Amino acid sequence: MITLEPPLRFAREADARELADLVNFAGQGLPLYIWEGLARDDQDPWEVGRARQLERVRKGQIVVADFGDGAVASLTGYPIGSEPKPIGDDFPALFRPFQELENKALESWYVNVLACYPEYRGRGLGSRLLSAAEQMARDQQLRRMSVIVASDNAGARRLYERHGYEEVAALPCVNEGWETDTEHWVLLIRPL
């Protein structure tokens, strides 16, 4: 298992509030839109988001940067298996482009979310989190990294390209009521 040097550490259950906020921030509001759809009756959608983050924390899928006052940046990731996931007619249209792109990134370590609060940008946290993810991928004998970015997220794309990621595919964004300027989802891959 990887050893993380401060300010990096594995996420803890106490980070759930910040993690949900960071995930929604990175996802340009799409996560909250999804959580609203999953919330029951009078359930707070943010409660749904926090619960989803807790699942990933328990699986050891989230690394955070913390300078002592809680998570200020995070990376969520996990391996994609060797078999494509089936996409049937009943597969939700909103998620179809994501799954189609993930199916092109088999046997890779997938960066699901990389987020940093604006006031902590420019400190190299994204690069440090990506380096930790790459080590986790190597520890699992994976030979490539993958990430899906929004076509209008130029800052994220520049970060990944600086780290050797290249575009391999793009698919149109399906918004289904989610308000966005994103036109395409772009799959980037980096060999290790």
TrEMBL record:
What is one Pfam family matched by this protein?
Answer: Acetyltransf_1
UniProt entry keywords in alphabetical sequence: Acyltransferase, Transferase
Q: Which CDD domains would you find in this protein's record?
A: NAT_SF (cd04301)
Say which domain of life the source belongs to: Bacteria
Domain (N-acetyltransferase): give its ranges: 6-192
PROSITE patterns, A to Z: GNAT
Molecular function terms from GO: acyltransferase activity, transferring groups other than amino-acyl groups
Entries under PANTHER family matching the protein: AMINOALKYLPHOSPHONATE N-ACETYLTRANSFERASE-RELATED-RELATED (PTHR43877)
Protein name listed in UniProt: L-amino acid N-acyltransferase YncA
